[in-house]
From TrEMBL:
Encoding gene per record: ccpA_1
Superkingdom as given in the UniProt entry: Bacteria
Cross-referenced SMART domains: HTH_LACI
Gene source species: Streptococcus merionis
Molecular-function GO terms, alphabetical: DNA-binding transcription factor activity; transcription cis-regulatory region binding
HTH lacI-type domain span: 2-55
The name this protein goes by in its record: Transcriptional regulator
Keywords from the UniProt entry: DNA-binding, Repressor, Transcription, Transcription regulation
Claim: DNA-binding is one of the keywords in the record: yes
Length: 324
């Protein structure tokens, strides 16, 4: 197997220069190119374990997800892992199943130097364990201290959904979603929807179902029976939108002829398949890149923006009128 000395000899540089290239240190662009070409030619594989001991790093980042089954989390994990790989890090997927005790175990892993940092989508009560000294990036949730958070513009998502429904002719609209136990950025979707509806002078209401949601379809059906004139719905996510469509079909109502529906997230049920419902798309890839970039900055003790809000966009599907 090739050694670092072999790489240095072939590139015509010192071993220290090769080490700086491998560890993303500062070297001339021309020197970096020579070293990288030598690495490729010799098929040199750095000893990451020894490298980690020397630098006191594991080059492993933990990604905490509530579940691995949901396409939204799966797509986000895909982009996070890709971005980390570009920077020489491995991604450890941690499925918390929404349990705070599991999430705390992962945080302890970091405190025991088993991972270098954490990116987390968490909806549990772990606020007391998040400190500015912990390389931790939260997605879709802003903690009370200086921890870094990354999210889509959820307020803007609600506003855009309301405006789009009204533009498409809806006169009586509603927001339907779950009510999380702890505040998250996702909750701002309802706020943006309500504020925009009132500004436009359109009748609006909402259905908030406490999580974990029981008898969801029954609650949705009762809500429509209590509000028979509803003709436009903004759902908290795309899966909720699909559930609402199923309930309306059972009630004999047609989508989008009788009721137009907009979801949120912009997820695909599978790769290369079109998005089914009209939706407000979150920039998942950019959220992943920002999360990774922010975490690397924290690990390098750099100043990193603590509150990152990324732009959303509307995607036309089959659940609103005038679909292409």
């Amino acid at each position: 197997m090739a050694t670092m000395k072999d790489v240095a000899h072939l590139a015509g540089v010192g071993v220290g220069t090769v080490s700086r290239v491998i560890n993303n240190g500062q070297v001339k662009a021309s020197t970096r190119q020579k070293v990288e070409e030598a690495i490729a030619q010799l098929n040199y594989e750095p000893d990451n374990y020894a490298r980690g001991l020397k630098l006191q790093k594991t080059f492993v980042v933990a990604l905490i997800l509530p579940t691995v089954w949901h396409p939204f989390y799966g797509e986000f994990a895909y982009h996070v892992e890709n971005e980390l790989a570009k920077l020489g890090y491995k991604c450890m997927i941690c499925n918390s199943d929404g349990r705070s005790d599991r999430e705390l175990e992962y945080i302890k892993m970091m405190q025991q130097n088993k991972v270098d940092g954490i990116i987390a989508l968490t909806y549990s009560d772990i606020d007391p364990y998040i400190t500015s000294a912990l390389p931790f990036v939260s997605v879709d949730r802003h903690f009370s201290n200086e921890a870094v958070s990354v999210s889509a513009d959820n307020m803007g998502a609600g506003s855009l959904a309301a405006e789009t429904l009204v533009t498409k002719g809806c006169q009586n609209i509603a927001y339907i979603g779950g009510k999380a136990k702890y505040p998250t950025e996702v909750g701002k979707r309802q706020l943006g929807f309500t504020e925009k509806s009132e500004k436009l002078g359109v009748a609006n209401t909402f259905l908030l179902m406490s999580e974990p949601i029981h008898d969801m379809e029954g609650q949705i059906e009762r809500f429509f029976k209590e509000n028979p004139t509803l003709d436009g719905i903004f759902a908290i996510n795309d899966f909720m939108a699909l559930d609402i469509i199923r309930v309306l079909n059972h009630m004999g109502k047609s989508v989008p002829e009788d009721v137009q529906i907009i979801g949120c997230d912009g997820i695909r049920m599978a790769a290369e398949r079109p998005i089914v419902v009209s939706t407000i798309r979150q920039p998942l890839e950019q959220m992943a890149i920002t999360s990774v970039t922010s975490l690397i900055g924290l690990m390098n003790k750099e100043d990193v923006p603590t509150y990152n809000v990324l732009p959303i966009s509307y995607i036309e599907g089959s659940s609103t009128k005038n679909s292409s």
